Amino acid sequence: MVNFIGGIFYFLLALGILVTIHELGHFLAARACKVKVLRFSLGFGPVIYKKTGKDGCEYALSAIPLGGYVKMEGENNPVQGDKLMPSNEGLSPDSFKAKPVWQRAIIIFAGPFFNIALAVILFTIVNMSGISERYAVVGDVAPMSIAQEAGFKTFDRIEAVEGKSIETWSDFVYTLVEYTGSNKILDVVVKSDMGKGAARTLPLSLKDFTLNRNESPLDVLGLKICFGNITNTLGAVVKNSPADKAGLKVGDKIVLIDGQEVDSWFRIQESIADSECRPMELVVERDGVKYSAIVVPELKNNSKAKKAKPFVGIAAKVEPLEGLSRMVSYGPVEAFGKAIKDAASMSKLVVVSAYKLINGSISADNISGPIAIAKGAQESAQFGLIIFISFLAAISVNLGILNLIPIPVLDGGQLLFLAYEAIMHREPSARTQAFLTSIGAAVLLTLTVFAVFNDIKGL
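== Zinc metalloprotease ==
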């Protein structure tokens, strides 16, 4: 219940900030173009509170906190039949429709632009506060996986993909998404011994690489991030768990599972996951002596999984290693420059992901809605202010870019109408605009319902 309330709170906080900035962009651009603003509202629906400023604008707080709007003078032309009257007839000079196309385009574009600008500011704050950059060092490789087939080994450091330099896991994941659906064999340059060893080029085939909800790109490949030397020795045993009941203790080294040698912790996890909760015989080494134990896994819900999974109650002992990550803080100028690059990279990722969703390269199950955003907001806030700010920046980029999609109910659709007017020297007819807007609204509603359905499935 507490998590639910926390999720709602942080969702509304995030949405309030993002919507305010978005609408502020429209508002300030309208003022700059000398357009009279009638109402600046946070939220939709019935007005809860309103106050008229000295500028004549009504500032309102509305009942439904899932958006907002700026209402401008002359935003809609008078209509005769199914035709729009010319924008200079019956309109005051300070109305929206009385302004030239380029000024109206600036007003419409300002909303998404302000969201992206906000992301740059937030990324700058994050970069100045100090960020941990984890190098792309492989911690483990799943057997019979895409990564194993390509030739990845534990402690390989990924240096480049298709000639593009790779430093962090984020760089690698962004590049993977970019090539998703291409069925291409990528040239991946790696160096063994965490980057200290010899370089070799691996052929990474993306033929069987598809992205599904609740599954990270690295999991699909069969790669684990290296957080240290993950041993087969138990670093923790959960009290009253199946492992505890079987007599396993911290410090035990697992050497056999059902008579099969295990060469990494990944194999241990895989054996448990595939056990179907049947009894498992584990041979462990304790103080130089080998012991046999029968462990019966139990089904247990996992917050990251869609369904219950076999649970034993053990964790590996991880030996720290140097050279896996670095903490970097930037000065104001450097932080701002990096923030621009971060926002540009994320914008590109959003565009590429949207395109690949359309062509089917990425599963539609990845479409997320308000419930997933609320969950992400709440979880990021638990890790501290800087992580929440990073989350807010990412969502702000998404909001800005997705608002530019040419669907009539979005800013991108309005820009599409203005582009038509600029080329044809006339506006689309009222009937055409109404028809396309209805289709756009239906598409957006369908996507929203689908996203919420996906969110509920992922709970």
